[in-house]
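Q: Given only this backbone (162 positions), what sequence would you predict?
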């Protein structure tokens, strides 16, 4: 089986085990370390879609004047992308977490900034992936309200955080 088929098979197995997402320690998937972690848990991940959750707290590094700042929303989206890649690498590379970078943010729309206690559900949908570069469509919601959306391009390096 080629690498693409291996990854697809792994995602199918993950999808079947949806209930196990809650058991994954998000810190095992991300190169970021506290206090810079902007994702609390992985909710869902398959070959096209990844969902994470973050409850906004006043001790968040991006919390300012009663709300999570714009940079916090952008970093939350980027870390949702990192959680997707981390899931793949966690399974294939024996816990190796690769470092990535934001390459492009396009069509960023922020309807409002979230307050302390609100839970963000961030969803990234893969548009295209070539080599180590991914283009996603992202939304951040609180309940049924979409508060942020954009396209984001990320690039993964061959370096790990170890």
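A: Predicted residues:
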């Amino acid at each position: 089986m080629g690498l693409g088929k291996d990854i697809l098979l792994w995602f199918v197995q993950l999808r079947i085990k949806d209930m196990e997402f809650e058991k994954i320690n998000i810190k095992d998937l991300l190169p970021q370390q506290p206090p810079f972690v902007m994702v609390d848990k992985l909710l869902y991940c398959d070959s096209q879609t990844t969902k994470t959750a973050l409850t906004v707290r006043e001790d968040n590094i991006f919390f300012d004047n009663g709300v999570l700042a714009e940079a916090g929303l952008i970093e939350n989206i980027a870390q949702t992308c990192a959680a997707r890649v981390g899931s793949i690498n966690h399974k294939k590379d024996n816990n190796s977490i690769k470092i990535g970078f934001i390459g492009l943010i396009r069509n960023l729309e922020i309807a409002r900034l979230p307050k302390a206690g609100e839970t963000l559900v961030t969803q990234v949908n893969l548009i295209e992936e070539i080599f180590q570069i991914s283009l996603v469509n992202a939304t951040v919601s609180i309940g049924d309200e979409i508060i942020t959306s954009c396209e984001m391009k990320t690039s993964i390096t061959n370096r790990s955080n170890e």
